[in-house]
Amino acid sequence: MNFQGIMKKNMLFHARKYISIYIVYALIVTLLFLFASLLYNEAIIQTLKPSYYQNLQLALGMVVAFSVLFITYAAVSFLKYRGQELGTYITLGMTSKQVIRLLSFEQLMITGISLATGLLAGIVFGKLFYLGFQQFIRIPELTFQLNTASFSITIAIFLSIMMVTFFLSALYIKRLALVQLIRAKTLKDATKGSYLLGFISILLFVGSLWVVPYAMENRHETLLKIAIALTLLTPYFMIGAGLLVMKRIMKIFPLFYQRLMLTLSNVTHRLRAFQTTLYLVMIMLGGSIVFIGLAYVLYASTEEMNDASNPASYMYVTSKDWQGLDEQSETFDFVVDNYARQIQGEWGKPLDIIVVSKTQYENYMHEKITTPALIRNDKELKPFKTPIKWNGTVLKDVQHLSRAVTNSSLFGYNIQEILVVDDPSIYQGDIFTVHKLGHKVSKAEALAYEEKLKSINKVDQIPSQYEPASKELELESDFQRTGLALFIASFIGLLFVLASGIVLFYKVLSDLPAQKEYMQSLERIGLRRREKKQLIRNELRILFFTPFFLSVMLVSYYFYLFFHRFPNTWDYMQKLGLVVIVFFVIQFIFYSYSRVRCEWETNL
Amino acid sequence: MITVQKLTKHYQAFPGAAIVKAVDGISLTIETGEFIGIMGASGSGKTTLLNMLAGIEPVTSGEITIANTDITKLSKDKMALFRRGKLGYIFQDFNLLDSLSVKENIGLPLILDRQHPKIVEQKTRELMNYLNIARIADNAPAQISGGQKQRVAAARALITEPAVIFADEPTGNLDSKSANDLMLMLERLNNELANTIVLVTHDAFSASFCKKIIFMKDGRLEMTIVSNGNHTQFFDRILEVQSAIGGAKD
Question: Which parts pass through the membrane (chain A) (predicted)?
Answer without folding.
Answer: 21-40, 60-81, 102-130, 150-173, 194-216, 222-246, 278-299, 484-506, 540-560, 572-593
